[in-house]
């Protein structure tokens, strides 16, 4: 996902209400999220569906890594040699 460009991608909610279609088109074309503000504070983020799905996949992977690190820290890991032997055995080698 591309980074937010402050000069283009932070817009007031009132502008969004007035031109929803153009905002959706902008987000789709640039693949950048748009931050919507109300009274000068961020209240919502509008983003392309494809970019959102990619972000969800990345988060799932990061959560798996985090969980694995916690398991290793708790001593629940399996040494590489043993894990390799299990995988190879499962493959019938």
TrEMBL record:
Signal peptide residues on this chain, from the entry's feature table: none
InterPro entries in alphabetical order: Antitoxin_Phd/YefM (IPR006442), phD/YefM_antitoxin (IPR051405), YefM-like_sf (IPR036165)
SUPFAM superfamilies: YefM-like (SSF143120)
Residue ranges that the Swiss-Prot or TrEMBL entry lists as coiled coil: none
Transmembrane segments: none
Pfam family, any one: PhdYeFM_antitox
Source species, domain of life: Bacteria
Annotated function: Antitoxin component of a type II toxin-antitoxin (TA) system.
Family: Belongs to the phD/YefM antitoxin family.
Protein name: Antitoxin
């Amino acid at each position: 996902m591309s980074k937010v460009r402050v000069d283009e991608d932070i817009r007031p909610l009132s502008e969004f209400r007035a031109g929803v279609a153009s905002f959706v088109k902008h987000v789709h074309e640039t693949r950048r999220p748009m931050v919507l503000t109300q009274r000068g504070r961020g209240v919502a983020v509008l983003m392309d569906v494809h970019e959102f799905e990619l972000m969800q996949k990345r988060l799932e992977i990061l959560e798996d890594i985090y969980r694995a690190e916690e398991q290793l820290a708790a001593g629940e890991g399996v040494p590489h040699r043993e894990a390799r032997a299990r995988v190879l055995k499962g493959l019938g080698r």
